[in-house]
Amino acid sequence: MWATMSMVGDTGYARMTVEAIASRAGVGKQTIYRWWPRGKAALVLDALAENVATGPAALPDSGDLEADLRTVVRATVAEFADPKLSATTRALTVETLADDDLAAQVRDRLLRPQLDAVRDRLEAARDAGHVRAGADLDHAVESIFGPIFHRWLLRTGPLTDEYAEGLLQHVMAALR
Amino acid sequence: MWATMSMVGDTGYARMTVEAIASRAGVGKQTIYRWWPRGKAALVLDALAENVATGPAALPDSGDLEADLRTVVRATVAEFADPKLSATTRALTVETLADDDLAAQVRDRLLRPQLDAVRDRLEAARDAGHVRAGADLDHAVESIFGPIFHRWLLRTGPLTDEYAEGLLQHVMAALR
């Protein structure tokens, strides 16, 4: 998986080939296709999913919801603003639009863990009385990631720290 | 344009050909390519943009912001839930991911007029004292369309009237 991720970073998804990944990993091309018959989309998904699985499972809980969400919102906006990561995500998005099974895997292995981590933090905040009792936490989670994704994919505006802060304030207004 | 839209509806975007559109419109294939050298993506974009341009430019203003937004949210969710419209939008989204110029046209001709119409209605509501003074209206607009688009594209949940109502309540909580 290291060979895949280092190659995505160096070469970019579009110019990356299964041959080159195999060569960097020191195995034959047939070995790659035996394990990842769908080729590079499946390889990149596995590499990204491994990152998610080995990353922190939960959000930090400093007791200050706004500060903890600021970390998530800023990091997410910065990821989508990064040209290399953005190109990889864009390529993977195209492949998911043509392949329902890949789409389900991206959703369940990449996306869901991140949405659930934010939902858990919001639930803790509600238990601590920092979120109004009637707030719907699923809608709250989507009110964070939905606008970022929409802005990134449809390029309706800049993805900056200033944008992240404005989004955070809008999200908090619905939660208090 | 009527030939294009009736064909998208009958045949679906994926199986639609420029030849068949030309035949339905009663012109030669070369005529289509002369005016729309990019082929069917450009044709569908023009047909959809014409719909937007001839549709109502402004949202209704009944004086009741929640009721007016409910109409928009329900209609948007229903559009994305419609299998034929969804397939067309999905196909156009794939093409925009590979073509920056087409992406800019989709944004400016299809998307922007709809976002602006909602923003204008929110501005009127703020002037009438129905929206808190500090609310950021651009974030408010994206908090409506972003989550719907995210849920539709990544298939994270159902697109139902119940979902539309929950989203509306979350959006209103940030505005009051």
UniProtKB/TrEMBL annotation, chains A, B:
Keyword Cell wall biogenesis/degradation found: no
Keyword DNA-binding set for record: yes
Residues covered by the HTH tetR-type domain: 3-45
Keyword entries, A-Z: DNA-binding, Transcription, Transcription regulation
Superkingdom of the source species: Bacteria
InterPro entries in the record: Homeodomain-like_sf, HTH-type_TetR-like_transc_reg, HTH_TetR, Tet_transcr_reg_TetR-rel_C_sf, TetR_C
Ranges for domain Tetracyclin repressor-like C-terminal: 59-171
Name assigned to this protein: TetR/AcrR family transcriptional regulator
Organism: Paractinoplanes pyxinae
Lineage: Bacteria, Bacillati, Actinomycetota, Actinomycetes, Micromonosporales
